[in-house]
Write a structure and sequence with these properties.
Length: 138
């Protein structure tokens, strides 16, 4: 698979996530809002990594599927860690006490292995789907 030189829509996604992040700072702590911001940031991170390191490169099918699977696991792990980090930042920004309950924090910590496994499955599935629509030169 040959990667494009630029990831389409990445600039617009950056703008949307940036606007939401600015809006998110002023909101009271809500786990769903943090999860949404984390998801947007992880997708941006993946897009910029692809654009920075894979632009214009050609990968074999095996390398492509391995990259998708491994990248999915890593992005799932990053999603969990970033969610916890944003929860801590949100609590630090608002000086009126904790924004999130201990149960919410424990839930996020407990979900990290699930999100990593889900990243593996989604990454592999999307990689296989893209392989079905792409052309491979090996």
């Amino acid at each position: 698979m040959r990667f494009p030189d630029r990831v389409p829509g990445l600039k617009w996604l950056t703008i949307v996530v940036s606007i939401y992040a600015i809006f998110w700072v002023s909101l009271e702590g809500d786990l769903r809002q943090v999860l949404l911001l984390s998801a947007g940031l992880v997708i941006l991170f993946a897009g910029y990594l692809i654009q920075r390191f894979l632009a214009g490169r050609i990968l074999s099918l095996f390398a492509w599927l391995g990259l998708c699977a491994g990248g999915g696991v890593i992005l799932g792990l990053i999603f969990g860690i970033l969610t916890l980090t944003l929860m801590a930042i949100k609590t630090g920004l608002h000086g009126h006490g904790p924004e999130f309950t201990p149960d919410e924090i424990a839930w996020v910590i407990g979900q990290v292995p699930l999100w990593s496994a889900l990243g593996l499955l989604v990454g592999t599935g999307l990689g296989a789907l893209a392989a079905g629509f792409g052309s491979w030169s090996e």
